[in-house]
Amino acid sequence: MNSIKNRRILDVLNGIPVDKTPVWIMRQAGRYLPEYKKTRATAGSFLDLCKTPELASEVTIQPINRFDLDAAIIFSDILTIPDAMGLDLKFEDNRGPYFDNPLDNINDVSSLSDGNLDSLNYVAEAIVQTKNKLNNEVPLIGFSGSPWTLSTYMVEGAATKEFRKIRSIVFNNPEMLNKLTKKLINSISEYLIMQAKAGADILMIFDSWGGLLNTDNYIHFSLNPMKEIIRNLRKNKFTKDMPIILFTKGGGGWLDQISKSGCNGIGLDWTTNISKARKITGDNICLQGNLDPCALHGTEEAIKASGEKVIDDYGFGHRHIFNLGHGIDQYVNPDNLKILIDHVKEYSKKYHKN
Ligand code: CP3
Questions:
Q1: 77 tagged catalytic
Q2: Going by C-beta distance under 8 Å and a sequence separation of 6 or more, which residues neighbour residue 132?
Q3: Does pLDDT of 1 surpass 60?
Q4: Is residue 2 within 8 Å of residue 201, measured between CB atoms?
Q5: CA of 77 to the centre of ligand 1 (A)
Q6: What residues does each domain of the chain span?
Q7: How far is CA 158 from the centre of its chain?
Q8: Does the reported pTM lie above 0.85?
Q9: DSSP 3-state assignment of 270?
Q10: What is the DSSP letter of 328?
């Protein structure tokens, strides 16, 4: 169907043997790269960068030009959906993204729009332009936040320390959260289909705050809604066969349930040992991760050793995508990332000889 040259990640997601472990890095387009900072300055602000397809596609391919990566991820943010639903996303340096009028009650949820994604056309256009610039060298990952993770931002207004408001609502106003979740399932499903139509080759759902919940509430408010999205995607002709990766940060205790969600790959944070994870999930599913992002602040030897440890822990087998356990931080020296990527590529070859 598509003629992508470097198919390692697609192969691993589909269970096809590869010559070495494929690599991409969460938040690979970002502030640790001087060229990103330059383009961001041209755009004027983070949100203008997200909303200007020419510049968003430019920063998407910057890490591809610099490193030996096996996939690009479209430059955007998970909070574009709440913005399109009417919450008016704002961004300040040193503060990050926020909403002035977060959701307080069920009426606030009722007044949100869902289903009309016309205002997110800039993401589709950024994908089209990125596909042109990538020239079929590597696949492009599209993404969304999970319903639960988007709900946390929509209710809290920003990333907060304790998430007391949303975690209270789980217990004192579940009707409100159920209603919000339902709207988000619709919007996210449409949004991911839109990204696939525009040219995304793989879809990933970021459930960055799933780990805040107890098991029953994780299943109800996070995993089941993600499953419903997967079911919607499997029913649509553009997305029915698309590889889907779920990443719940803090989800190490729920791998068995996540592996039965219908996804093709599971993102692991660095708190779970990948060898133990593999024993739970089995080889019918792909694992992605899971180096501690702070390992990139180590010496050259330490960086290489920590990359080797993840590869050794996974061991022989073709269903591993190397990544960090969460996004790369802005203070990492890009040269250190190059050391890691090149070393993992070389070192992992021995596990792929048949
Ligand atoms: O991975 C990539 O290269 C693609 C781009 C991407 C961004 N955000 C760009 C970004 C992706 C996949 C995201 C997802 C995202 N956004 C998540 C899920 C992943 C995760 O980290 O758990 C979340 C929770 C957000 C919300 C968000 N966006 C926060 C909390 C922040 C502020 C934190 C920070 O790092 O400053 C952002 C801003 C943001 N999103 C930046 C980038 C490159 C930094 C903005 C800048 O240029 O100043």
A1: yes
A2: 57
A3: no
A4: yes
A5: 6
A6: 8-351
A7: 18
A8: yes
A9: coil
A10: P
